[in-house]
Amino acid sequence: MEESELFRKKKEKIESLKADGIELYPNDVRVKDTSASIISRFAHLDHDALATIDERFTIAGRLMAVRDFGKGSFIMIQDRAGRIQAFVRKNQVGETTYSMFKRLDIGDIVFVGGKIFRTRTNELTIDADELRLLSKAIRPLPEKWHGLTDIETRYRQRHLDLIVNPHVKEVFQKRSRIIQLMRRFLEERDFLEVETPMMQPKAGGAMARPFKTYHNALGMDFYLRIAPELYLKRLITGGFDRVYEINRNFRNEGISTIHNPEFTMLEFYQAYATYDDLMALTEEMFTCIARELLGSLKFPYQETEIDLTPPWPRITVKDAIMKYGNISPDVFGNTGRLRACARDLGLNIKDNESPGKIMMAIFEKEVEAKLIQPTFVTHYPVEVSPLSRKNSLYPELVDRFELYIYGKEIANAFSELNDPVDQRERFMMQLKEREAGDDEAHEMDEDYIRTLEYGMPPTAGEGIGIDRLVMLFTNAASIRDVILFPLLRTKEE
Predict the structure, then answer these.
(1) 311 prior amide bond cis, ω within 30
(2) Are 319 and 325 in contact (CB under 8 A)?
(3) Between the chain's N and C termini, which has fewer beta carbons within 10 Å?
(4) Can you give the residue ranges of every domain in the chain?
(5) Cβ-contact 101, 88 below 8 angstroms
(6) Is residue 420 a contact partner of residue 430, using CB atoms and an 8 Å limit?
């Protein structure tokens, strides 16, 4: 049926309801039950046992199906907790109400009250003695209301996706639960939740291209934060030894199945700890979430099984390149050989590229996708880690790890650089990178250096990508499946 014809029929029904004095959008009902609460209480009772229940139930939700038998109809109502069937009889709700009911459409929001019973097919059902229209839907649900499958439509009209695809709602319920578990885990370990600025005068805390905005009253450029790191470490300096923030970050970069320019991160810092301590803490946090959420440390993800049973393997960047990229150890001692190796792999390497950046380019191409089971990759080059503490034995490396699961970076952590002189030198190195055309290099931040000059205790910090973690625990292939409203190009109507 053409859309114009559907709207015409809807309009006719709306006008007839108005003519009968039926309010289309009332706001005077109170609901005491949900589909799930009724089912959980009475699913185990048979027909005879239910007949002894004298309680009256009220629910409200979206009308999702109607089976019409003339003077009676079975309807399916979907509320926030699930679905339940109701039986609407003309001789019970009355002729006026039943007449109104016959003009309702799939997608309308209704209120139902009544006792419960079991049908001949043994389905738990509300025997409606009251039915009210709460919100008249003007637009129809997708024709095949039981399955909205077009990916573009699902992301652009998430409200429809949530209505017609129940498993999508479950994903976001799990997302909320994961964040609750993270909060509980950290608070049980004496971490304090804080909030830091989302608009910052310097784009700091990560190597990424920021979004820029302008504050009219102050007459200043600001940046949407790429990370809360430098502000959280100011709090460490100020005496909050354990802090965390569940924050929104913004990075002006590409969009893919694992990247969204606006994303959610858990970032936390612990004084008097090292990156080794955070590896243990991360194992403990992830296994706690898995047990609470899934009941197991082993679960399916795409075509494989992920096993979070600790301890997780630890491997250096260099050893990972040799192991998974089958690269000879000889290339690492000579920048020319390393550059030639990278170019042989098809990488576009500049003549003046530093050895550390070349190593990371090889790592990303040859190693990342092969790290399926949880793996801590450690000892990153100093050139790509401007805020990390240098390793005591190998000063060209830093005390840092990234956690990989199923080829995706899930977490990034390091022992923090708290030497203000070294930090200034790192920022100066980054400024040279910016002058050479790297717009993701870190800016100089004199205020942050001043903070370090007051003395920041030895500290370790970590960022965990919540979107990617939710992907893992919900078996989602794309980051867009775990973000309610992913960034999309504007579409003309």
Answers:
(1) yes
(2) no
(3) C
(4) 3-140, 164-313+373-481
(5) yes
(6) no
- What is the number of alpha carbons within 13 Å of residue 148 lying toward its C-beta? 22
Burial of residue 285 (number of CB atoms within 10 Å: 0-12, 13-18, 19+): buried
Burial label, 332 (beta-carbon count in 10 A; 0-12, 13-18, 19+): middle
**What is the distance between the alpha carbons of residues 156 and 14, in angstroms, rounded to a whole number?**
27
Backbone phi, psi, residue 237, to 5°: -60, -35
* Beta bridge mates, 376: 314, 403
pLDDT 10s digits, 84-103:
999 999 999 999 999 999 99
Under the banding of pLDDT at 50, 70 and 90, the label for residue 1 is very low
Question: For position 493, what pLDDT does the model report?
Answer: 52
Mean of pLDDT over the chain:
93
- pLDDT band at 441, cuts 50/70/90? confident
CATH architecture, domain 3-140: Beta Barrel (2.40)
Q: Side-chain half-sphere of 31: how many Cα atoms within 13 Å?
A: 18
Is residue 251 within 8 A of residue 479, CB to CB? The reply is no
Sheet order of strands, 199-200 included: 199-200, 220-224, 211-215
Tokens standing for residue 376? 């801590």
- Report in angstroms the alpha-carbon separations of 13 from 7, 65, 346: 10, 18, 65
What b/e string do you get for 261-282 counting C-beta neighbours within 10 Å, with b at 16 or more?
bebbbbbbbbbebbbbebbebb
Q: Which residues contact 214 (CB under 8 A, 6 or more apart)?
A: 220, 221, 222
Q: Which helix (H) or strand (E) holds 402?
A: strand 397-405
Q: How far is CA 130 from the centre of its chain?
A: 40
What is the end-to-end Cα distance of the chain in Å, rounded? 20
- Residue at token pair 């090292």: 274
Fold annotation for 164-313+373-481: BirA Bifunctional Protein; domain 2 (3.30.930)
